[in-house]
Amino acid sequence: MNVNAIREQFPILHQEINGHPLVYLDSAATSQKPRSVIDAVKRYYEWDNANVHRGVHTLGSRATEGYEAARAKVAAFLNASSEEEIVFTRGTTTAINLVASSYARTVCGEGDEIVITPMEHHSNLIPWQQAAKATGATLKYIPLQPDGTISLADVEATVTSRTKVVSMTYASNVLGVINPVKEVAAIAHRNGAVMVVDGAQSTPHLKVDVQDLDCDFYAFSAHKMCGPTGFGALYGKKAILNRMEPIEYGGEMIDFVDLYESTWKDAPTRFEGGTPIIAGAIGLAAAIDFLQEIGLDHIHHHEQKLAAYAYEQLSAIDGITIYGPKEGRVGLVTFNLDDVHPHDVATALDSEGIAVRAGHHCCQPLMRWLNVSSTARASFYLYNTEEEIDRLAASLQRTKEFFGHAIG
User: Fold this and answer.
1) Is residue 222's pLDDT more than 90?
2) Where is the Aminotransferase class V domain (predicted)?
3) Residues near 212 by Cβ (< 8 Å), separated by ≥ 6?
């Protein structure tokens, strides 16, 4: 990978923040957008802007073609067996809520089980809490190992014949852990449960094959993989999607409407009522083209090198605690600096042009498991460099010394 050439394609990176060149280390929250994605969205609004699946005029036809071409591109990107298995949503959160509300609330009942882990983002935790409360099902957690990983033995012990749903993040947004979702899916299926994968943190960084994983649902967001905000997709096995009821009703998702009864189209259309985020689909398609041109394998290898280098550089600073396993992680490092609040760390770094995330990262149960209230997180993507990590480490050393003098 020619990282310098890649960086040239991201206009936002070429600016100063507080008098320093920007070092953007918050891609796990949202990635930056290359010129090709920005141009694709701009081109749609300038030349093709019209509603989809409605008008027969030229603009409507071009908009519909672009929207459905994006669906086909997502299906190929995930290796889905059909583009009918791709439901466009507002992102991972909406996709998981769709499964929890439409599928889980139908199949779960008193005494049934929903299984997740304590490392889940709130978007893959709260929907299952609510589904369990609504149906009388029991919410169960696969325990974490001391380093934040999960063991398949614990999965086997937690998932039972009463389990209806197993839902798990493919990659943790705090620990960086890459979970064995393929093996977990096999365990879920042996017990008659479906497997839901939160792919928000994996899709931008790993080559994903939903047929190989044999998951029943897979959710992801465009904005974490160089695409627009407010858009994403849910993959679902076609037979399951067509058994599910829609949770939003309106235009285009209907088959026939009478005064007192209505019927629905097959998936995915039954889940896409109303005017969709057409520009989001166009932008996501452009983002997929951009990532595939570089290669997901190359991106993953680059990020692993950055994560290992960051782990090494930050570990050399006295008083830093790094969370999660040293090996086998996606491109992020979550840490705390002794006696300095993560928000103060992030503010100090920002004063030198370095953007990191600070807080509970929408993972409050995991924070409690780590015995902290919050952490700082530096996350890397294809446009980051080792030199930027050097700047991060040097700034953290200065931050430590500054607060050490202040406390002293």
Assistant:
1) yes
2) 23-392
3) 79, 182
Is residue 31 domain-resident? no
pLDDT tens across 366-375, in order? 999 999 999 9
For the stretch 51-79, pLDDT in tens is: 999 888 999 999 999 999 999 999 999 99
Q: Give pLDDT tens digits for 209-220.
A: 999 999 999 999
Identify residue 136 by its one-letter amino acid code.
G
Instruction: Count CB atoms within 10 A of the CB of residue 100.
Output: 25
Question: For residue 32, is it within any domain?
Answer: no
Q: Which residues are catalytic?
A: 362
Cβ 331 vs Cβ 379: under 8 Å? yes
What pTM was estimated for this model as a whole?
0.96
Q: Are residues 392 and 329 in the same domain?
A: yes
Q: Is the dihedral of CA 350, 322, 405, 407 positive or negative?
A: positive
Q: How far is CA 95 from CA 92, 274, 331, in A?
A: 5, 16, 24
Q: In angstroms, rounded to a whole number, what is the distance separating the alpha carbons of residues 269 and 57?
A: 21
Number of domains in the chain: 2
Q: How high is the mean pLDDT of the chain? A: 96
Domain end position, chosen among 258, 293, 328: 293
Nearest to 231 by CA among 297, 276, 288, 171: 276
Q: Do the domain assignments include residue 45?
A: no
Clarify whether residues 315 and 395 are in a common domain.
yes
Is the domain of 76 the same as that of 165? yes
